[in-house]
Design goal:
By secondary structure, the chain is of the alpha/beta class. The protein contains ten helices and seven strands.
């Protein structure tokens, strides 16, 4: 091999390594977002992509007991939004396990049964709230109406990302796109810990103004839906709803006594506890949970 040939091969290898290094440093090519592939997606801010969800984890809306008023209000608001009419952002707050996130997913599914152009449900994780402006720019130009859904939304001390959410919900120059609405669930009515609110109050020049600044995030939601712990009879109604749905044919007294004992050992009554009991009951008796 001649000297010039060796030099040429060496230069080619160097160029290949440089090209490979540049490819690793360059940002990845973003996939094209296809909202026709599903009615549910999860927002990935790193790739700026909406990951389609093939099977949305949901339950039938008729299985949600003890939340009739919240169910009616959210269903009506979502139906208005689906028809292109004015609708509000909604905050579902209150007791754990009482069906807040289940209601959002159930209302989304029920609404889509009655319309031609489906609503798109997009889950946004709590830690990805700061990336919402990017997502809104993407959604502003699509022909679908979208529900942004953030489950278990809350903010701790020294967390300032709530300020960007405030601007997105109501403020900012661009404002929220007409085809986007925001639903969130939280165990906290004002989305912030008591310690965080008290800290704002203690450090502010005007204590009242500091508190208003802290709690005004929840005021950006036009609809507040409260979820509270259920009584014994509502809990049994939840259990019976599941056993009928999954055709668990056992004597009502056996189901009731076992359900109350289960709730006593858990120290609480809720839709989540009812479902956990039904799973245990079906497992004991070898009954498959199939609809």
């Amino acid at each position: 091999m001649t000297s010039s040939k060796k030099t040429s091969d060496s230069n080619n290898l160097v160029l290949i390594r440089i090209a490979e290094a540049l490819e690793r440093l360059s940002p990845p090519t973003h996939k094209e977002i296809n909202l026709e592939s599903s009615s549910g997606f999860v927002w990935n801010p790193e790739t700026k992509y909406l990951e389609p969800v093939i099977n949305i984890n949901r339950i039938d809306i008729t299985l949600l007991k003890g939340v009739d008023q919240a169910k009616e209000t959210l269903m009506e608001n979502t139906s208005r939004f689906a028809m292109g009419r004015p609708a509000n952002n909604a905050l579902l707050w209150g007791a754990r396990g009482m069906g807040k996130s289940s209601l959002v997913k159930a209302v989304h599914f029920s609404t889509n049964q009655n319309i031609d152009n489906p609503l798109i449900l997009i889950e946004v994780h709590r830690e990805d709230i700061p990336s919402l402006p990017i997502l809104l720019r993407i959604l502003r130009g699509v022909n679908y109406r979208c529900i942004l859904f953030c489950d278990d939304l809350s903010f701790e001390k020294d967390d300032t990302s709530y300020k960007s959410l405030k601007a997105l919900l109501e403020g900012g120059i661009e404002g929220r796109p007409d085809n986007v609405i925001f639903y969130a669930t939280s165990n906290r009515r004002h989305l912030m810990s008591r310690e965080m609110i008290e800290n704002e109050q203690a450090t502010g020049i005007h204590r009242g103004e500091s508190v208003e600044e802290s709690v005004s995030l929840s005021d950006r939601f036009g609809i507040w839906l409260g979820f509270h712990s259920c009584d014994q009879e509502t809990f049994i109604e939840m259990v019976n709803g599941y056993t009928r749905w999954y055709q668990i044919d056992l004597p009502p007294k056996i189901i009731r006594d076992a359900a109350l004992k289960w709730a006593a050992t858990r120290g609480s009554r809720s839709g989540r506890v009812a479902w956990q009991f039904v799973q245990d009951l079906a497992g004991q008796h070898g009954i498959p949970l199939k609809r």
